[in-house]
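Batch manifest line 463
LIGAND: protoporphyrin IX containing FE
JOB: complex structure
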Amino acid sequence: MADAPEGEGPFTPPYPVPHRSKASLFKRFLTGWNSWIHTLFERSYTMQMGEIRLPRLDFFIANDLSVVERVMDDREKVFPKHRFQHELLDPLIGNSVFSANGKDWEEQREMVNPAFAHTNLKRVFPAMQGAVDDLLATIATMDRSKPIAVDPLMTHVAADIIYRTIFSVKLDQASADRIYHAFHRYQKNIQPGAMLKLYGLPLFGYRRRAARAAAEIHAVFGPIVKARYDAWHSGGGEAGNDILQSLLEARHPASGEPFSYQAIMEQVSTIFLAGHETAASAMTWALYLLAECPHWQDALLAEIDRETKGEPIAFEHLRALGGVRNLFRETLRLYPPVSFLVREVTAPTTMRDKLLHKGAMIVISPWLIQRNRNNWKCPHAFAPERFDDPEEAEACRRAYMPFGKGPRICIGAGFAQQEGMLILASIVRAFRLRYPDIPRPEPVSRLTLRPKSAVQLWFEDRR
Ligand code: HEM
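JOB STATUS: finished
ARTIFACT:
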């Protein structure tokens, strides 16, 4: 769709240069402290199945696509989500649909499903549009004589969209800032806390600090949930038309009981966090990639003008914006916000030539699989057009999993793609983006994959 400038190959955006050989346990511990993708070595990307023995845990990384499919499709439920992931997320989301397993998960999923029917894409489009219009207005009034930090803007708009969809209210700036900073503190503390736990070491207060940050996030929307919960259960509440209303009305499939206040808070926290932190990460990276590739901005602008004929971007236009969709997909391939998925072995099993004992951890990493040269052509290059290339169709089908795979695939994938496309198309139409003359952003992987420090971009008016 967009040709690179003459004499230049496709752009290769930043990623941590892998170590030549496997580092010592001590070195891995130090580098993994803040970002696990920094512990990778060259062979990590192409090996079929890796094995790391930690003092307290056998740890396997599966890259072989047939093993990946076996683990992720898991119809027999022998590879549930690992308790380590539960540890990472527990203070934030408790035992919700994201972290529960087995029958408990099935029942929760049944109760939460109607809430996701509210994310019926056409119905939520106006809420998304309202939040995006506010975003454009905010950027237009910012001091643009210097580059603008993109991450907080994307966090705000993604959080605002999910807020409007869950609660039918707009997210104010003070609450957005509180969430952004608290979530940053949460990630900073929970990652080392989890590493220490993995190595069987004392926790040095990391977990306590993470729990405090989680409590701060809950305090932002706790009062809204409490008021609606009390009103609904005392018979005085008016039925809303949002996700919270579906959760209030949900009934347990066996007992017929409604969710308790605590359980609703856990589901709301899950939907809110799963639904905005990931999307914000994706949009931040997408804008960075665009800023480095002006020819892509030109190509997308031509596509948007052709399809919308200058009208506001509508739900009906999105289907025809193939270039914008490919940009979104390629961003998620290069920078999958959820860079690893963790499963637990519940019965001894053999995979390839390895015997996995009960309790072992299996990691499936979209980051590794989507950057494996045996799956993709020029895997580290930014090439959105690959999604239209018949030679890469097999990779797109089998080696592309930013939303996971199998029964536990992301429930919000369509929602995320719609908001991502709307935001990106709206920004490309309004502004020309440029990357300043500063070092490139460095990806770090904590709970989500984020730039180490906020991405700064020039936003120049198009008109
Ligand atoms: C770019 C944005 C997003 C990405 C990359 C993403 C990624 C993922 C991934 C990888 C999983 C599966 C985790 C695993 O198998 O261990 C997942 C699950 C989930 N996601 Fe998303 N997600 C995104 C947006 C959203 C949105 C917008 C929502 C809600 C509106 C959402 C809600 C959920 C929920 C509730 C689950 C748990 C599903 C279950 O286990 O039954 N996500 N997501």
